[in-house]
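Schema walk-through. Below, the input block comes first and the output block second. Nothing else is stored per chain. Lengths vary across the set, and this one has 284 residues.
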Amino acid sequence: MESELYKKVYQIIMKVYKKTILKRVTFTDADIVKIYLWAVLHDRPTRWACDKRNWPIYYRAKKLPDTSTMCRRLRTKGVQQLFKDVEEILKSENQTGLCSWIDAKGLQINHCSCDKQAGFGYTGGGMGKGYKLYAIANSTQGFEQWTIGPMNLDERKVAQNLIAKTTANGYLVGDGNYDVNALYDLANEKELKFIAPKHAGGLGHRKNSHHRLKMIDRLNSQFIKQIIQSRVGIEHMFGRLCSISFGLKPLPAWVRGLFRVENWVRAKIIFYNLWQNELAPRYV
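--- output ---
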């Protein structure tokens, strides 16, 4: 499975990569991306992929960079853009469906970690330290928009940034935590119909969004109930992302700091989208 995935992502990288002239550079941006993805695919640190002994024989002919070169080049604009281009081409192969979902998943680390960019927040029914994957997802495009942030960020505020960037259409569904006026208004500007079960605290005494009140009146309709029930789809996607052999397992010890966590998660999502598009089992 892993070798087949790597061959496919290798082909996509070479298809997407636009050769640029870099002065005094031995390795192209495509080389750096391919080596990093090989490490992430096998849940190993970058230095592991810089050793030829950890590659199949047919990949050993080419020279490999050292660890310091990888760390420096991974932060360049060209490499980061290539990562995004590969992810984008996997999304663009499918059209968005009628319904998209918004939610967040905690990425916990040890409480004793000295990672200053991690935060304490609620996850999995309790408090934890680490980061969160905040995402808008749908069944056809996978994780259509996402970002990484400390675990203590307010999911509703992060949701505003995600909705502003999304290209999804139709319905966008969140849980009761997302039942706030700002999200209804912002979704309407993007021509989205936002749905969230009414918050347990009620409507309060402030003026409420017209779009929120209109949707609350429709919550009892059978169609809207079915749309809300479909939100479990993002839970299933998080579950598959974390349960496949090459998926997003608990963050390893060498993935600390916002930049490294974001790179690691992006690589895992690239492999997930590729697997979902071409290699996932189909049930009739």
